[in-house]
Amino acid sequence: MKPFSHLAHGYWRLMEWNLRPEEIARLIQASLDLGIYTLDHADIYGDYRCEAAFGKGFALLPAAERQRVQLVSKCGIKLLSASAPERRIKHYDYSYDHIVQSVETSLIRLGAEKLDVLLLHRPSPLLQPEEVARAFSDLQAAGKVLDFGVSNFTQAQFDALQGACEQPLVTNQVQISPVHVDYLFDGGQDHALLHDYRPMAWSPLGGGRLLTPKTERDQAVLDAFSELSASTGLPIDTLAYAWIFKLPSNPCILLGSGKLERLQAAVNALSYDFPLEDWYTILHASRGHGIA
Ligand SMILES: NC(=O)c1ccc[n+]([C@@H]2O[C@H](COP(=O)([O-])OP(=O)(O)OC[C@H]3O[C@@H](n4cnc5c(N)ncnc54)[C@H](OP(=O)(O)O)[C@@H]3O)[C@@H](O)[C@H]2O)c1
Predict the structure, then answer these.
(1) Best substitution site from 202, 259, 260, 261 to test ligand 1's pocket, by max atoms within 8 Å of Cβ?
(2) Would the pTM count as exceeding 0.90?
(3) Which CATH number does the domain housing residue 219 bear?
(4) Closest by alpha carbon to 199, among 253, 246, 143?
C-alpha cells in the first residue's frame, strides 16, 4: 500500500492564499513538521499557475527537506485558458504524448526530478487503457514517476485501466466528506478494501460547505457537529476529519486550507476515535434519514 501521510496538503487554492515564495517554503516546512508530507497538485490548478508558484517556494527548502516531500500531481484535463488560446472547448486528453508532456511540464514547474504519484484527473470515455499503460511504463522507466493512480474513477473504470497496466494503481482520489457520502455506498470504499489501496479524500469539508452551509442538509450536518463540538470541546473541522478517519479504507485526507492552525486542527483528529453512535448521528444528518 502506498505510504501516503495520513493527511495530505492540497495546493488547489494556492493562488488564493497570496503567499510569497518564502511563505510557501515556511508552509511546506511546517506541514512536514506536522507529519504532512504528501502534497497534492494538478497541472491545471490555479489556471496552470499553482505548480510553478509552489516550485518557487519548494526551491528555498534545504535538499534534505525537499526529499521528505511526496509529490502528487495530475494530468488529463485541458482547460479553456488564456495560456492555451488555440483551445476551443474544455476536454480530456489521455494520449501518450499529452500524458508524457504534462508530466515533464509539471516537473519543470515544481522544480522536482520526479513525481511520487501521477493521477489521471478525471475519467474520459475516450481513454485507451493500453496507450495510458505505455505512457506509465515509459515514465516509470525514465525515473520521472514512481507510482500511478486515478481520480474520480468508477470501480469499472479503475479495473479497465488496471487490466492494462503492469503497475498497481495506488489510489483513487475521490470526494469524501460528512456532506458528501456517496463513496460509502456506491461500492467505492469496498473496491479500495478489496484491492488493498488507500483512497485520497478530496474536499473533506465539502470545499468549506460544512462550515458555511449552502443547503438545509448541510445545516443539519453542521448542527450535529456543533452539538458534538460542545460536548467534546473539539473544533468542528477536527471532528469532521476524525469522522472520515473512522472509515476502514483508511483515506488519506486532502486538506484545502492555507492556514497553519487549520492544518494543526486536522492533525489533532488523528488522536480522536469517533464514537460509533456519534458517527451514525452524523451519517443520519448527512443523508436526511436513519439506517434501515
Ligand atoms: N481530484 C479532484 O478532482 C479534486 C477536486 C477538488 C479538490 N481536490 C484536492 O483536494 C484538496 C482539498 O480540497 P478543498 O480545498 O475543497 O478542501 P476542503 O477542506 O473541503 O475546503 C477548503 C476550504 O474550506 C475552508 N476551511 C477550511 N477549514 C476551515 C475552517 N475551520 N473554518 C472555515 N473554513 C475552513 C478553507 O478556507 P481557508 O483557506 O481560509 O482555511 C477553504 O476555502 C485540494 O487542494 C486539491 O488538492 C481534488
Answers:
(1) 202
(2) yes
(3) 3.20.20.100
(4) 253
